[in-house]
Write a structure and sequence with these properties.
TIM Barrel; three-stranded parallel sheet
């Protein structure tokens, strides 16, 4: 009886041991997310060193939204002003401006939007769009936000793709220059979305878990074509300030981005959703930020307060090998750029104060 008990105990142990091993061997790449055993100095930075302006914010319900919880989170982060790029137009924009004015008049601003869907090429449309933009600015809009649908999804009255540099849109960009408002534009998406979906694609995990983001090489045009259209637009309108969202998707090729900034003095870039690219090249990125310190603006894109500390830590600290907050964006660790204060201040708020009209400068140090 005693031997039988020992046998069954060993059998049970063996089954558990082998089951655990088989389970570990069956882990998929999506599930594999090991905790680093590296112990190095550093700490999470929950509050930015200086008050900052988020040039790339989204509050889609702002016309009727209770802004108090947003302000509470902003204060926790040391965010001075949020630029809500989802301001829309007409009565919706007016409602947002009123909600801001009634509650927190110096903490939010809105950018106007234009709907290009099925209207480009229609007689008189661009004149009406320019007229509405002028009215939106009179009503309180501080800039114009262009979504990636321009160049990707919008078609004209003849069913053709509307190019980002379509000459029929030139009056809009010229009017922004006349009004002294910036255009923040998001074109295309990361280039790997257009590349072959294979083991060499650095965005494999993101495309595996979010397959709708994958595009064919020419869907609806090559990535290089769409981004060149954006840069052509900047070149055609030197009197208008443009902010290329997501660092023009060139945060992984800062040499190329530097060439563009040298060529296009009216081009600025926002760092929304590309901090992972900067955090894996801290020395080169630091040199880039110092050289182009007058052309880079802080922006986060999605409103998730818990993700801001990654941005602060990359920009402010000299920490090594700390995790990013989304594995499918970056399965590599981050390193801090340890930017000088003079550069931090420009990225956090001074550059935005210079190109976005009407912001409350009293919220920020000299």
């Amino acid at each position: 009886m005693k031997h039988s008990s020992i046998f069954f105990s060993l059998l049970l142990f063996s089954s558990i041991f082998f089951a655990d091993n088989l389970s570990a061997q069956d882990l998929t790449f999506e599930e594999y997310n090991p905790k680093s055993t590296l112990v190095v100095p550093g700490k999470i930075i929950k509050k930015a060193k200086f008050p900052f302006i988020d040039i790339h914010g989204h509050q889609y319900r702002m016309p009727t939204q209770d802004l108090a919880p947003v302000i509470t989170a902003m204060d926790t982060l040391n965010m001075g002003i949020m630029v809500n790029l989802s301001g829309r137009s007409g009565s919706d924009l007016l409602k947002s401006v009123k909600n801001i004015a009634d509650h927190y008049p110096n903490r939010f601003v809105v950018f106007a939007n234009i709907n290009f869907s099925e209207n480009v090429g229609k007689k008189g449309w661009v004149s009406e769009a320019v007229k509405q933009l002028e009215q939106d600015v009179k009503n309180g809009a501080r800039g114009l936000k262009i979504y990636k649908s321009l160049g990707l999804r919008y078609k004209d009255v003849n069913g053709n793709r509307v190019k980002v540099d379509d000459p029929r849109l030139d009056p809009i960009w010229a009017k922004c220059g006349e009004l002294g408002i910036p255009v923040l534009i998001h074109s295309a998406d990361p280039k790997p979305f257009w590349d072959d979906f294979n083991a060499d694609n650095e965005r494999w995990l993101e495309l595996k878990t979010r397959p709708r983001r994958k595009r064919g090489a020419n869907n609806p045009a090559p990535w290089e074509t769409i981004m060149q259209e954006q840069h052509n637009m900047f070149k055609k309108h030197p009197n208008t300030n443009f902010v290329s969202a997501h660092m023009s998707w060139l945060a992984n090729d800062l040499g190329k981005l530097g060439e563009l900034l040298d060529e296009l003095p009216n081009m600025h870039v926002g760092i929304g959703a590309i901090i992972a690219e900067l955090g894996r090249q801290p020395r080169f990125a630091k040199q880039f930020f110092i050289k182009y310190q007058d052309r880079i603006l802080f922006g986060k894109d999605s409103w998730k307060p818990e993700e801001f500390p990654t941005y602060f830590r990359v920009l402010e600290s000299a920490d090594e090998y700390f995790p990013y907050h989304k594995k499918y964006h970056a399965f590599w660790p981050m390193y801090g750029l340890d930017l000088p204060d003079v550069v931090l201040k420009k990225v956090y708020y001074k550059n935005a104060l210079r190109i976005v009209p009407g912001l409350d400068k009293s919220l920020f140090p000299e």
